[in-house]
C-alpha cells in the first residue's frame, strides 16, 4: 500500500474474494484502507457477494467504490449504489468485440467499467489471471462512462496497451507480484511510472 500511494496510484484495490490469493481479512482491509483514505480511491473488490457481506464491508472499511467482478446484474449494481452510497465499478470480461455490448447496459448504472480478459479455462478466479485480450477492441469505444483497462498488463506492455486501446486508466495485479499473491514494491513503482509516462 505504501509503495502504491508513494508512486501516485489513483486507486487501490482490496480483495474480498475468499478464493483469491490476494484475499484480505476485514481487519487487514481496515488498516490498509486507513492508510489510503484521502490519498487514493479505495476499491473493495467482490464477486457475487450478498448484501449482508457488502454492508459489513461498507460499515467497517468504508470503501469509496465497490468493484463487482462476478455476474452481478445492472439492477444489483444500481441497488447497491443507492443502498450503500458508494460508487460502483463493474468488471466486464472481454475476448471479442461482441462482449463490449454488455458494457453499455452496465454503463447506465455503474460509475466506471473495468474491461478485463476472460479467465483462462480451468481458472477459479474471474480476475487476476495475468492474461490479456486484444486491446484494439476498445479503440473508438463510445461509452458514456469512464472505463479502465486490465488483464495481463505489465511494465513492458502498459504503454502499448494504452496506445492501442485509448484507455485513460489501467489496473494491474499479477505483474506487480514477486510470487502469486505477494506484491512487490519495486514492480509496483515501475508499473505506475510506466503507466503515468505513457
Ligand atoms: O486478483 C484477483 O485475485 C481477483 C480475484 C477475483 C476477482 C477479481 C480479481 N482481481 C480483479 C482485478 O481487478 C485485477 O486487478 C484484474 O483482473 C487484472 O489482473 P491481472 O491480469 O492479474 O493484472
Automatic annotation (TrEMBL):
- EC number(s): the record gives 5.3.1.24
* EC class: isomerase
Pathway listed: Amino-acid biosynthesis; L-tryptophan biosynthesis; L-tryptophan from chorismate: step 3/5
Task: List residues traversing the bilayer.
Answer: none
Example GO molecular function:
phosphoribosylanthranilate isomerase activity
Keywords, sorted A to Z? Amino-acid biosynthesis, Aromatic amino acid biosynthesis, Isomerase, Tryptophan biosynthesis
Q: Which reaction does it catalyse?
A: N-(5-phospho-beta-D-ribosyl)anthranilate = 1-(2-carboxyphenylamino)-1-deoxy-D-ribulose 5-phosphate
Pfam short name (any one): PRAI
* CDD domains noted in UniProt: PRAI
Query: Family, per the entry?
Result: Belongs to the TrpF family.
Please give the NCBIfam families that the UniProt record associates with this protein. Answer: PRK01222.1-1
**What is this protein identified as?**
N-(5'-phosphoribosyl)anthranilate isomerase
Q: Identify the taxonomic lineage of the organism of origin.
A: Bacteria, Pseudomonadati, Pseudomonadota, Alphaproteobacteria, Hyphomicrobiales
Report which gene this protein is encoded by.
trpF
Amino acid at each position: 500500500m505504501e509503495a502504491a500511494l508513494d508512486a501516485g496510484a489513483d486507486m487501490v484495490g482490496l480483495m474480498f474474494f475468499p478464493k483469491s490469493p490476494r484475499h484480505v481479512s476485514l481487519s487487514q482491509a481496515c488498516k490498509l484502507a486507513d492508510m489510503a483514505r484521502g490519498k487514493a480511491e479505495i476499491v473493495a473488490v467482490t464477486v457475487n457477494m450478498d448484501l449482508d457481506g457488502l454492508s459489513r464491508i461498507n460499515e467497517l472499511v468504508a470503501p469509496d467504490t465497490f468493484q463487482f467482478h462476478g455476474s452481478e446484474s445492472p439492477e444489483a449494481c444500481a441497488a447497491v449504489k443507492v443502498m450503500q452510497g458508494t460508487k460502483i465499478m463493474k468488471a466486464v470480461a472481454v475476448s471479442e468485440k461482441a462482449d463490449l455490448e454488455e458494457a453499455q447496459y452496465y454503463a447506465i448504472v455503474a460509475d466506471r467499467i473495468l474491461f478485463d480478459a476472460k479467465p483462462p479455462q480451468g481458472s477459479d478466479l474471474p480476475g487476476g489471471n495475468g492474461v490479456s485480450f486484444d486491446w484494439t477492441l476498445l479503440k473508438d469505444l463510445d461509452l458514456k462512462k469512464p472505463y479502465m483497462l486490465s488483464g495481463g498488463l505489465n511494465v513492458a506492455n502498459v504503454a502499448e496497451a494504452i496506445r492501442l486501446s485509448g484507455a485513460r486508466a489501467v489496473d494491474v495485479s499479477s505483474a506487480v507480484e514477486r510470487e502469486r499473491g505477494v506484491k512487490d514494491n519495486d514492480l509496483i513503482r515501475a508499473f505506475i511510472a510506466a503507466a503515468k509516462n505513457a
